[in-house]
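User: I'm curious whether this sequence folds into something compact or stays loose and floppy. Could you predict its structure so I can see for myself?
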Amino acid sequence: MKIRSHRVIEGDDGEMWPDGEGARFFGVPAWLLCFALCAAMPVALLAYTFASR
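Assistant: Here's the prediction. I'll summarize afterward.
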């Protein structure tokens, strides 16, 4: 299975070009992955701090 960093649109004539929605990883937009990581990291640090007491 080929992993692409962005989706591609294929026209009627067979020409392909990026769809303009930005980078994607496994179909998920890169901005959404970055947002999830930035939201999850402080929560994980707080959970670790709470658990280690």
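Summary: The radius of gyration is 18 Å. The chain has one helix and four strands.
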